[in-house]
Amino acid sequence: MSHTTQLSADTMAEYFTTFTRRWLAKEPTGVVDVEVVSSDLGDQVQSSGAQLRGITYEPKANSLEIELDAADVRTFRPKAVWVEEEDNGALRSLEIVRQDDTREIIRIRRLGAPRAD
Q1: What's the longest Cα–Cα distance across the chain?
Q2: Of 7, 9, 45, 81, whose CB count within 10 A is highest?
Q3: pLDDT tens for residues 54-107?
Q4: Contact at 8 Å (CB) between 94 and 16?
Q5: Can you list the pairs that 15-20 forms with residues at least 24 positions away whose Cβ atoms lie under 8 Å?
Q6: 79 with 101: CB under 8 angstroms?
């Protein structure tokens, strides 16, 4: 079973540093699908099957960066950040709400694990 939590700006840096160290530091095992949803553009797939290298939040710049093998996804001044975790603490998905209410949905799956559509 999974659970969803909204992260505050005060907790994001530590949360993503801990996640990256625990799940990605030794050997990145996650791949991600990045989807952008907005009322103007609809639902757009930005990336599919990219290897996840890390996630960082920089409080001074108020920016969240999803580091991928191909290209990074960076959001400045996120309005809200939600995470969905498995019982073991593994990150299942991340939703970033931009200032214009566009949503970036990042679905994370571990290599070798079946895709949950």
Answers
A1: 40
A2: 81
A3: 899 999 999 999 998 877 889 999 999 999 998 888 889 999 999 999 999 999
A4: no
A5: 15/57, 15/83, 16/54, 16/55, 16/56, 16/57, 16/64, 17/56, 19/55, 19/91, 20/54, 20/55, 20/56
A6: yes
CA dist 92 and 85 (Å) reads: 5
Q: What is the pTM of this model?
A: 0.82
Q: Note whether 107 and 31 are within 8 A (CB).
A: no
| Residue 104: strand pairing partners | 36, 96
> How much is the average pLDDT of 27-40?
76
The domains found in the chain, sorted by start residue, are 2-110 (2.30.29)
Say how far apart CA 78 and CA 103 lie, in whole Å: 10
Residues 47/34, Cβ–Cβ less than 8 Å: yes
Nearest to 69 by CA among 110, 31, 114: 31
Greater confidence, 28 or 21? Answer: 21
